Amino acid sequence: MAAEENDPVYGSVYRDALDYAAKLHRRQFRKVPEGVEPTVPYLAHLLEVSALVWLGGGDETQAIAGLLHDALEDQGPHTSPRKLEKKFGPDVRRIVEACTDGAPGVVRDESTWLERKVAHLAELYAVDSDALLVLAADKVSNARAILDDEAIAPGEVWARFNAPRQAIAWYYDEATAALALRLPDNVVTLRLVRLAALLADSAGGTDLRACYAAMADDEYEDALRPLAEAKTAAY
């Protein structure tokens, strides 16, 4: 009994992942509104995501993936899927890849925003179930940060994104719909539902079509087709 009482509630691999994430992101700050001095290490976001995974009933593998979910997206030159798998196993590597926005080498700016987000949203309907909680936790953390910054500096937070504010709100609304379908009644998903509604209100709606009014109707429909097809298959 005494030995069990002294056993750690998480293993050495989690501690290794925490150290690895801290080193990978050691020069990275959390984004802030323009003109505001960044002071929050990006590690705070990674810790929040990992904590939300634990709170949502996730296991240690998912919590480790929470710490590393932005490793490939933000620190690709310093790590790789192969390195992540070697250090933390194939399940962590697979979940981190599911959380990565865009393929390696793809430019992440306004010219690719809609294509990347539609592809990611479509994947939410098919991605492995153990990745869903990490994805939901990441979106809760990001949505909360947007709303916090909006409260501090109204209107300024939206300038950091590669899309209009209603497009951002649309993205969170669509992500919430997918996660609520596949991960219902989880405390993290329920929190995301509330945050997405607040984001939509703050952004003045979720009218994506208005954001891309310059696109022809057939071009717009083609852009959203992967998401429409994923929804049809899921429902």
Folded structure, characterized:
The protein has 235 residues and is mainly α. The chain has a single domain (2-234), classed as Orthogonal Bundle (Hypothetical protein af1432), CATH 1.10.3210.10. 66% of the residues lie in helices and 0% in strands. The protein is built from 13 helices and no strands. It has helices at 2-6, 12-24, 43-55, 60-68, 71-75, 81-88, 90-99, 113-124, 129-152, 165-182, 187-203, 208-211, 217-234. α3 (43-55) crosses α9 and α9 runs parallel beside α11. It is globular and about 60 Å long. The model has no long low-confidence stretch (mean pLDDT 93).
Whole-angstrom Rg: 18 Å
Number of strands: 0
Return the CATH class: Mainly Alpha
What level of helicity do the residues show? 55-70%
Overall CATH architecture: Orthogonal Bundle
- Major beta-sheet overview: none
Compressed to H and E, one letter per element, the order equals HHHHHHHHHHHHH
Annotated CATH homologous superfamily: Hypothetical protein af1432
In the predicted model, the low-confidence regions spanning at least 5 consecutive residues are none
Q: Can you tell me the CATH topology?
A: Hypothetical protein af1432
Number of helices: 13
Principal-axes geometry comes out as: globular
Helix/strand class: mainly alpha
Strand share of the residues?
under 5%
Overall structural domain count: 1
Average pLDDT metric:
93
How far apart lie the N and C ends?
49 Å
